[in-house]
Amino acid sequence: MPTHRHARPLAVVAAAALTLASCTSEEAGSSAPDGEVDASVQTYGGIERIGATDLPPTTEVSLHRPDGEQSEATTDELGSVVFRDLEPGDGYRVGFSVDGEERQSEPITVLDEADTPDQSFFDEQQMEQGLNYITMRDGVELAATVRLPEGKTLADGPFPTLIEYSGYETAAPGDALASIAAQLSDPESEGDPLAPSTSTAVGSIVAPLLGFAVVSVQIRGSGCSGGDFDMFGLPSIYDGYDAVEIVGAQPWVKGSKVGMVGISYSGYSQLYVGGTQPPSLAALAPMSVLSDLYVGIGSPGGIRNTGFAEGWLEGRQSDAEPAPEGGQEWAKILVADGDEHCIENQKQRLQTLNVLDIVEGNEFKAPALYERRIPADWAENIDVPVFLVGGTQDEQLGSDWLNVVERIDNDDQTWVTLYNGFHNDALAPEILTRWAEFLYLFVAEDVPEIPDNVLGLAGALYEQSGGADAPPVEQSRFAGTTDFDKALATFEEDARVRVLAEFGAGELGPRSLESSEELAFDTWPPSEAEATTWYLGDDGALVPNLDDAGSGSDDYRSDPSQRPETNLGDGGVYDAEPDFNWKPVADGAGLGYVTEPLTEPMLAAGPASLNLSIASSDTDADLQVTLSEVRPDGRETYVSSGWLRASHRALDEEHTTEIRPAQTHLADDAQPLEPGEPVDVRVPIHPFVQQFRTGSSLRVTVQAPGGDVPLWMFATGEDGTRTITVGYGAEAPSALVLPVVTGTDPSGPLPACGALRGQPCRAYVPASNGG
Fold first, then answer.
1. Which SS3 state, helix, strand or coil, does residue 529 take?
2. pLDDT digits over 461-493, tens only?
């Protein structure tokens, strides 16, 4: 599992500036604190940290280290403090003063990642149906609600069991299905305030209906869980390990093994937890995940995402506020009702770091913030079967998630389903049955069969998620059989990568939750894909041969104000007919390059790269490139986009390929531009799958960030004052490199303009350079 000890000195130095902990000082030779031990002070030694509560509020305290050094801090208004980035070891103490008398805490041990509790620690914690509080290795409590199949009690066990681990209102103990039913019957009803959020429906509704027990675990620093919120810092990651082992030790858990499920937050949390390799973990089934917090969503190409990413962080900061004044609604209610655990667990909330301030203050991928928070790094250590689902036009998280697939070093037990479309489309009927089969086979160890109530409920769930027509959920292909081993062997022969092509172009009509056909590959990117190059050329041409490109350059004024910030008009992406406002490239404010119409169909599948020779009139340039299909009918369909701040162009050679440039985004690697001097840059285009028909053309555009995706906006340095020059030809061979799979023909006609989910369609308008 990732420890990155080699980078520790840099991380410690950077953390001093980044973590917003109280001011510290080092005093060599300091001894243990003076005064008697005060047992009323509650302390915990976590992984590389110490927390303390019940200290005098807004009072200076000292942390005395076993090496004799000392750090100073000030407690918050609730009398709490957290010291971070500490060396593991025994003998730490907190010293403080009360009414002029010096006092100290009991000795505290700081933990290391490898400090796994004895099995007895997990075995001793017994859980009941409903809301529980489970204790992590550092003493922090997490709220965890046990949900059983309808009508069941623990006495009916053992149950195949799943965990959903998230910072949303996950452990809220109400009945999510009953709450949704009440809202459907009475549109004015707000539902049950104690119900978990609909974003946890995978665990709180779907899985129990399939016959699984589910333990909904609340991430530390949120809801009624204790501790301070730390966006997937090591304590939260290893809390997941501890939760798996505590749940696995319950007598009502079938086989003492658990799986993990969830979409989005409770999807990518699984990549971290899986990387810790809990012995009781049976399988992971994450939906709509992230590969990298920085390039995947926070700062694509090094340009900060002030749209969804920033709004999401604001929501998590709000969730972390102490109840009842702030925080999640269910925690406010339980605090008001006198839940002593929930009340006690609010005490460290004011120690939560302001993630927004940290991110806004750091343009680069600071190791102290990101080094051990990259989902793909943890995924390399996953050693259980994985069923991974996601969209290539995910309006929230993008499609960089697909780059995690090749990092999971368990490819003979990893199955990936991808589709064009949105974040929540991961729950579509064509996916749900295969997902359920995976859980039955690898967690329940039973022959899959979808219950009738799930088959009947699906329509209401899909109506709730956005008004799209959807086919019925299909019964499992294994239903009615009794040979588990044969069913398992059949599933294991399924293609490792399943592509639901052209979601929205099925028989149910435009934008439906239905694909037109399935494609199958054994790897991602597909091993059949060959890097294929088209060169930028004269008059906006995109040509397969460099000799035909001509020679020269094109200029544009980099001005994001010439187009909307996003491609979404009024309404939302889940409206039955989304109001996309995907505007053409503004005159003089961008460039376009387009091929001649294709003489045969072409499938492109994977990440891509636009390799450019550029010069800027300034010391930097923020680039947005977009790949699209220009159709024979004169319309244009969106495919994918990519971004790069040119000063971030230094490549991470370990993860860079011919079709996927990966930049380091480290401050030490920054390369400001010399005004007017050309440089070579590789702009990564996020992964996609697109079937280009005969008669269509490929198009790539270059302009300022913004206007091409629904929920992302950018803190760009572009304001219309920079002129960007793109060179082409033999002296500056700018080129588009795509992963092309030959010998595949689409099974149906060209989809109607705007039919494909997540892929807006507009009239094709050439850019000012002709392409």
1. coil
2. 665 555 688 999 999 999 999 999 999 999 999
